Amino acid sequence: MMLAPPRWACAGALLITLSTACTRTAPAAAVERNLPVEAQPQGPDAYVLADDVSVRKLAPGVWLHVTEVTLEPFGRVSTNGLIIEEGETSLLVDTGWDARQGALLLDWARDTLRRPVRAAVVTHFHADRLGGVPALVPHGIPVRGLAETARIATSLGRQGPWETFTESSTVGSLELFFPGAGHAKDNIVVWHRDSGVLFGGCFVKDGAATNLGNVEDADVAAWPTSLARTRQRFPEARVVVPGHGQPGGPELLSHTEALLR
């Protein structure tokens, strides 16, 4: 399904509110954090773009971007996304918390990676996934996501995806799959077969998580079945990237199931 592309773009057009952040109502202990950006190494496989944006190589042709924001009373909260090399271009999976962070990721892909972003994917409607979308609009970069994500974003007055699907889709080398509700009713996962990387987003918890975090928009009853569908569809996954915290392997799916129990 193709929606009409938006005609507006402004760095301030999309405000981050706790009502759509994945960490919205989680207690402080439930908020996962990566290393502070300033503590991360700088080099050919790791780049600090700002004090709240960093990029590091995760696998050949696959880069993990980490963006941070300060949320009261939690302090600095980080979230993960990917940049996938695709020939002379790249694909962006999730866009950071706001348009400034989204623009920094676009600039890095163009100027440092030398593979400008040609398309993007957002994995659900929360602000840590689609907050950077307004930065993509002036460049004519298409954004793909679930039709439900577009519907919810529109209802909240936010910029969501305008290339939509209902169950599965592909963007270049990426397979997009809606396994069913979990962390949110519209969460999708993203599979990159060439590297064996499965981006679970907030649908998957990191290994250090001791609870499910924010479940205000979750369908806890459906979540285990959705995880089983994910495991069945992507049995070859070697690296699993959660929405927050450190990447791991397929054990993160089992860990999420254990937290649900």
Automatic annotation (TrEMBL):
Q: Which reaction does it catalyse?
A: a beta-lactam + H2O = a substituted beta-amino acid
Cofactor(s) listed: Zn(2+)
Q: What is its EC number?
A: 3.5.2.6
SMART domains in the cross-refs: Lactamase_B
**Domain Metallo-beta-lactamase residues, every copy:** 78-244
Task: Identify the stretch annotated as signal peptide in this record.
Answer: 1-28
Against SUPFAM superfamilies, the record matches this protein to: Metallo-hydrolase/oxidoreductase
Query: NCBIfam families in the record, alphabetically?
Result: bla_subclass_B1
UniProt name for this protein? beta-lactamase
